[in-house]
Amino acid sequence: MNVFRGIKPLILCTLLSVSASATTLAGSFAFVTNQNSSDVSVLDLDQRVEIRRIPVPGKPAGIVVAPSLSAFYTVSPDSKTVRKFDLATCQLITEAQLDGGPTGIALDPKSGQVFVSDWYNARIFVLNADDLSLSRNLQTGSAPAGLVVDPDGHWLASADRDANQVSLFDLKDLTLIQRINVGVRPFGIAVDPSGRIHAANVGSNSVSIITPKTASVIATVPVGERPYGIGFADGKAFTTDQYADTISVFRLTDFELETTIDVGEYPEGISSADDGKLIVSTNWFSNTVSLIDPVKVEVIGEIETGDGPRAFGRFILETPPGERPCSKTE
Amino acid sequence: MLMRLFAAIAVFLVPLLLVPTTSEAHGPTRQKVTLTTSVPAAPADVWAVIGNFQDMSWHPAVFSSTGEGGNAIDATRVLTLGEASGPTISEVLYKFSDEKMSYSYRITDVKVEVLPVTNYSSHLTVKPGKDGGSLIEWRGAFYRGYPNNDPPENLNDEAAIAAVSGVYKAGLDALNERFSGN
Q1: Which option is the CATH number for A27-319: 1.25.40.10, 2.130.10.10, 3.40.50.720, 3.40.190.10?
Q2: Where are the NHL repeats (chain A) (predicted)?
Q3: Residue B25: is its pLDDT beyond 80?
């Protein structure tokens, strides 16, 4: 499912403490940025319960969970702050103040670089994942929002909302490979299990699907109103349709729309979890996450969060059996 | 009532600012407002008054409403506020259910001097309340009026929340008076 899977047991075993109630089941956790209440809800997706509420000032939206670094990172656009937290303790490690409008975030664990989009200044900040020091900027189109890094380490892509394009960069030297025209106002962006880029166009109610190798759009799939995020499981893509309060489901084989599911109000961040057996989506207005069975394509549960859950980015942590985040005290 | 609302709106009347607007640009943090009121009338009776997208005469700030498409999805309306020559708000319907007694709409055009918000969407819903009464719920989601960084005070997040809350409160207060028979 991801690049961390192979190395995860080795690293996490040393960094996360083993809980007393350890079971033989692997764990799955969601780190949900609550923008309106300025905190992060840590959710145990198996127990369906919130296990921790972490204060994160400045209206956080962007998040990236980095198990190989035993860290997670948040972006608060109101205070223009990027923060790094320890996964084992859920304590703040360090923070950095940026200019402009920091919004989306992605991480390349191999090079140890964090990328943060600047909504107001058409650029991506490149930060050191260790101490969050700024090393350089990359130029994008207007209003870059979502960012995604290739799990195989070849490219970085940004959804440049007001330029109606995706910028594709070579991760090797961070040079621009191509600007790719997509639908109207792409905001969320994700990579599917076959390595294709999906950009959700909030202005044209569609998803543009890009093959990075040729830097070209191979399909455009119409979905529900105001698609925001995209997740993948069971050979399907799931988009959160913000104004329709639905999730649209389309097949990754022929890109045909299969169905829509009703969820909470203003669904936003979405991701697969539990090794692809679950889809988790946040409902910004309802203050919940919806848990969806990707095979049956139905809602099977709900967990409450803080106020205004966004989870804009890679917000799921999968752990080996018995290991839990936030369980270690300092 | 009318005076009170206009006092609320007047606070946000600002000189024309050089706000660079691409029409869909917005600030960094979406805001939400939910206001409710309980009234001693059956949900069906309340819905009969407020459940028509083309008739907002129940709101004291609305002078008139013209529109097309009835209560069908993508129906439009233009609300004129206060007086015949008053400011206008253009809106489009994107959800409507008689069964759920709820409709959802968004603003397609309003000057930030009238309502300091962008990307505004809203739901108006009637739910069963206590003792056969109704709970009327009005919810909005929107960004502040100033789409760029470091907004002036009259176009910041707080100003947007205050303005939308003022509009909802005036409408719900009027419904409360109407159904309480006072």
Answers
A1: 2.130.10.10
A2: 101-130
A3: no
